[in-house]
Specification:
single chain; alpha/beta; Monooxygenase; 13-stranded mixed β-sheet; three-stranded antiparallel β-sheet; about 30% helix; about 20% strand; globular
């Protein structure tokens, strides 16, 4: 064991997912205790603001251990989908001064790479604190009230991957008040008596010059400049539980400027059950150029708009069912010039012509997914056997 370098032990301990097992290993020897503790504190989770404040003394007394922390998750209030309600189980609501102090302490974790903030009111100096985290690459903010961002930052914020959802803006009242409205089903409920405005689109992208991966519940064209759009390599919209609804035209207004995208994922829940009518001779949107795009998942009209300018496309998934056989055949024909190896389509009604056309027209395809709604028509065992033997040999 003496001949095994510490770096190797750290890699071994890092692969242990069970915290209890890792704690048991730290009790084996003094050496394992030091190495195991270093791994344990690489990812810190504070379940609520009260817990976070109680831990600050430990980090103040052990400044050397702060450099070991690589990931930090802070849930200001545990267990709720809004930042405005707190109770005895989730910790008391933090005052603005406490929230600001906590944010300042977070900036002392100089080697931090992943930061998650959720369910709380973020202090006015949030973006100043982020400037001090020069190793931060991944930032997640959800169910938070965020401050107004500055026009620019003296020190560039190093975040390259941003994930945001359900953001709000407005200063909270410094004094939370008891609410009888929640008293019947939330013991010791406390709420901020303040009007909050939802932020439907991240409004601080302009101060993230290194951003190349963005996940949001919605994006407005005004919130992303041409330069920022051109830097993105991956863009995801997940509108399952967001405030407001984006139209495909609105999404396209931003997407068409993201010329360097490699991955595009647009999930709009309310469009999943709508039928998609595809005709190769009807232009859906003004076309853009996406020479690096390899993966796309989204509404059919958006996919159809991207196809002509995406010569490197390898994976195509359309979220809504195609209205009929002719629309499916037209779409498959449009994919023939592309080097696609994964295709997933949904049909309103089963038609064996679609699968046969896919297997004949896309010989380089490695994965085909064809979903259909249950009804009178369905593939027979004989047909599937014939297709597998004749067309799917490879």
């Amino acid at each position: 064991m003496r001949d095994v370098p510490n770096e190797l032990w750290l890699r071994i301990f890092s692969g242990i997912g069970d915290g209890k097992t890792l704690i048991a290993i730290t009790l084996v020897s003094h050496s394992f205790y030091g190495l195991g503790m270093e791994v344990l504190i690489r990812r810190v989770v504070w379940k609520n603001g009260t817990v976070a404040l109680s831990h600050l003394d430990f980090w103040a007394r052990n400044p050397d251990k702060r450099r070991c922390v690589r990931g930090l998750k802070l849930h200001y209030h545990e267990g709720y989908k809004t930042p405005f309600v707190g109770n005895g189980r989730s910790g008391r609501l933090l005052s603005p001064a406490e929230s600001q102090s906590l944010c300042a302490r977070i900036s002392s974790f100089s080697m931090l790479k992943h930061l998650t903030l959720s369910h709380g009111f973020l202090p006015e100096d949030l973006f100043q604190s982020l400037q001090l985290l020069q190793n931060l690459t991944h930032l997640t903010i959800k169910y938070c009230c965020v401050p107004v961002p500055p026009l620019s930052t003296p020190i560039p914020i190093t975040v390259s991957t941003l994930c945001v959802s359900n953001l709000y803006t407005q200063k909270p009242d410094p004094a939370p008040t008891e609410s009888s409205l929640f008293g019947d089903f939330i013991p010791n409920a406390m709420v901020y008596d303040v009007e909050l405005n939802p932020i439907v689109s991240p409004h601080f992208i302009h101060i993230l010059p290194h951003l190349h991966t963005l996940t949001a519940s919605r994006i407005l064209e005004r919130d992303i400049s041409d330069d920022a759009a051109a830097r993105l390599a991956s863009f995801t919209i997940n509108e399952v539980s967001c405030t407001g609804h984006a139209t495909v035209t609105e999404i396209w207004a931003s997407v068409r400027r993201m010329s360097q995208l490699k991955r595009l994922h647009i999930d709009v829940e309310r469009l999943r059950d709508r039928l998609f009518f595809y005709h190769s001779w009807i232009p859906f949107q003004p076309q853009g150029s996406f020479p690096r795009l390899q993966t796309i998942y989204g509404p059919g009209s958006l996919v159809a708009s991207v196809l002509p300018g995406a010569n490197a496309l390898a994976q195509v998934v359309i979220m809504e069912p195609l209205a009929g056989t002719v629309h499916a055949l037209d779409l498959i024909t449009a994919l023939i010039p592309l080097p696609v190896h994964t295709v997933a389509l949904s049909l309103q009604k089963w038609d064996e012509k679609v699968l046969i056309h896919m297997t004949q027209s896309l010989p380089q395809c490695e994965r085909l997914e064809l979903l259909y709604f249950k009804g009178r028509s369905r593939p027979t065992k004989k047909f599937l056997h014939t297709v597998g033997k004749k067309y799917l040999k490879n």
